[in-house]
């Protein structure tokens, strides 16, 4: 029995049983899904369930925990902030954590980003960006009511974010209620010209307010990757048609690609950026949308009706800002930057090995993101093959969430080589076991 095992008193129901009475989980068909696992503790890369079983969190809990669970440095920053100012409304007020965070972020964001708008999660960060693109032209008296996005994109679950997303079963029930979005091919190798041509044709119409994209990596599509040069060309084409570019860095931001932001690989600069997930090190929900001066100026007017009437109760929550500031401290440490390089090298070595495996169709790496596609017919996003893979990984004490036949690893930056080798070994075992 592990030292972290917690035995409930006799007659007390476990977390999993109690959960089923009242809770409704995300992306879950409760009639057919397995019961959720009750987690009681997290530390570093590891999680423990209510029965004492240990898991390696190899996806940083949906990509939000780059510095590990129960990080003491972030926890201390949160505690210190809670003892001075836990929250104050941001309408008509400001505070040191928000101002300091804005100053720190401006040091690492692309140079054209000049204004920040706080919200509470990745979907709302995207929602705000799309609203700003549409209202900018409305304020000017121009009718531009459409958005451009990639095929198989995923940008979130609020209405504009859903509209921009291209994974149909997430949005099918709401098709008639969404803004108009036109999709272009992702400029993966061999489809670059097709993507450019599609965007050029749309840009010539003067009907589109924005083009939103996941820069260099489409996460929910299965870590689909494409080259920075291709995105540079698409940003340039957008500018010719007055189309504002929106970089959804919710997944890729804060080191995932090996740089602070995926946009750091670009020569061009987007007009807007959406940040969340790792922003606070997985501790407190928070998001930021950043804007160029041009966009901000489109709302700066004597006419109050041209303001951006959007807000959230917990906008710029001081405690969340303190967590974000601590997270930035950790990201910028030399040791953490060395960890990014170390994980990337380990991933590349594993990629070289997996590319020779007869059951692997492709393998790809960018920064700390590793993905392999199994040689197999596609089923569905949550098909039976994917579910067998997921269950196998869980049984082995590793948290991985395959997308159809794509297995990806996106670990906390503090994972050690031995833990990475364990994850790699279990992925290899799955290739031999799951048919």
Automatic annotation (TrEMBL):
Needs which cofactor? Answer: pyridoxal 5'-phosphate
| Keywords (A to Z) from UniProt | Aminotransferase, Biotin biosynthesis, Cytoplasm, Pyridoxal phosphate, S-adenosyl-L-methionine, Transferase
The entry marks the following residues as binding pyridoxal 5'-phosphate, namely: 122-123, 248, 312-313
- Please write the reaction equations for the catalytic activity of this protein: (8S)-8-amino-7-oxononanoate + S-adenosyl-L-methionine = S-adenosyl-4-methylsulfanyl-2-oxobutanoate + (7R,8S)-7,8-diammoniononanoate
Residues with PTM N6-(pyridoxal phosphate)lysine: 277
GO molecular function terms noted in the UniProt entry: adenosylmethionine-8-amino-7-oxononanoate transaminase activity
For substrate, which residues are the binding ones? Answer: 62, 277, 311, 401
Q: What is its EC number?
A: 2.6.1.62
Which residues does this entry assign to the site Participates in the substrate recognition with KAPA and in a stacking interaction with the adenine ring of SAM?
A: 27
Q: Which Pfam families match?
A: Aminotran_3
InterPro entries, A to Z? Aminotrans_3 (IPR005814), BioA (IPR005815), PyrdxlP-dep_Trfase (IPR015424), PyrdxlP-dep_Trfase_major (IPR015421), PyrdxlP-dep_Trfase_small (IPR015422)
List the CDD domains: OAT_like (cd00610)
- EC main class here is transferase
Q: Where in the cell is it found?
A: Cytoplasm
Q: In which pathway does it act?
A: Cofactor biosynthesis; biotin biosynthesis; 7,8-diaminononanoate from 8-amino-7-oxononanoate (SAM route): step 1/1
Q: Which residues form a coiled coil?
A: none
Give the record's family classification.
Answer: Belongs to the class-III pyridoxal-phosphate-dependent aminotransferase family. BioA subfamily.
Subunit structure, per the record? Answer: Homodimer.
Q: Briefly, what is this protein's role?
A: Catalyzes the transfer of the alpha-amino group from S-adenosyl-L-methionine (SAM) to 7-keto-8-aminopelargonic acid (KAPA) to form 7,8-diaminopelargonic acid (DAPA). It is the only aminotransferase known to utilize SAM as an amino donor.
Name of the protein in question? Adenosylmethionine-8-amino-7-oxononanoate aminotransferase
């Amino acid at each position: 029995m592990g030292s972290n095992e917690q035995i409930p008193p006799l007659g007390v129901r476990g977390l999993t049983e109690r959960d089923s009475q009242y809770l409704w989980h995300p992306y879950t068909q409760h009639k057919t899904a397995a019961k959720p696992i009750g987690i009681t503790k997290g530390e570093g890369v590891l999680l423990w369930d209510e029965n004492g079983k240990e898991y390696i969190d190899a996806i940083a809990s949906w990509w939000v925990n780059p510095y590990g669970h129960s990080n003491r440095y972030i926890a201390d920053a949160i505690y210190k902030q809670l003892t001075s100012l836990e929250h104050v409304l941001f309408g008509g007020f400001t505070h040191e954590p928000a101002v300091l965070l804005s100053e720190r972020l401006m040091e690492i964001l692309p140079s054209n980003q000049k204004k920040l708008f706080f919200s509470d999660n990745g979907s709302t960060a995207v929602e705000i960006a799309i609203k700003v693109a549409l209202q900018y032209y409305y304020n000017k008296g121009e009718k531009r009511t459409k958005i451009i996005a990639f095929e198989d994109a995923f940008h979130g679950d609020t209405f504009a974010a859903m509209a921009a997303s291209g994974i149909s079963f997430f949005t099918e029930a709401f098709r008639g209620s969404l803004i108009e979005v036109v999709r272009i091919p992702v400029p993966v190798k061999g489809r670059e010209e097709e993507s450019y041509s599609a965007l050029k044709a749309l840009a010539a119409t003067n009907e589109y307010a924005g083009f939103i994209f996941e820069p260099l990596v489409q996460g929910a599509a299965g870590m689909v990757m494409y080259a920075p040069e291709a995105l540079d060309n698409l940003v340039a084409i957008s500018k010719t048609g007055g189309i504002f570019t929106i970089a959804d860095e919710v997944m890729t931001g804060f080191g995932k690609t090996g740089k602070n932001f995926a946009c750091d690989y670009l020569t061009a600069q987007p007009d807007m950026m959406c940040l969340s997930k790792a922003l606070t090190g997985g501790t407190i929900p928070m998001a930021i949308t950043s804007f160029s001066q041009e966009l901000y100026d489109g709302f700066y007017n004597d006419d109050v009706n041209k303001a951006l009437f959007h807000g959230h109760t917990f906008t710029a929550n001081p405690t969340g800002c303190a967590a974000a500031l601590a997270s930035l401290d950790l990201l910028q440490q030399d040791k953490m930057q060395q960890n990014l390089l170390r994980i990337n090298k380990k991933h590349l070595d594993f990629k070289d090995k997996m590319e020779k495996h007869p059951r692997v169709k492709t393998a790809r790496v960018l920064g700390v993101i590793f993905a392999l596609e199994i040689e197999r017919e596609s089923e569905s996003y949550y098909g039976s093959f994917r579910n067998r893979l997921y269950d196998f990984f869980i049984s082995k004490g590793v948290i991985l969430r395959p997308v159809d036949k794509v297995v990806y690893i996106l670990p906390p930056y503090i994972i050690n080589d031995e833990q990475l080798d364990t994850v790699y070994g279990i992925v290899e075992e799955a290739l031999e076991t799951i048919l």
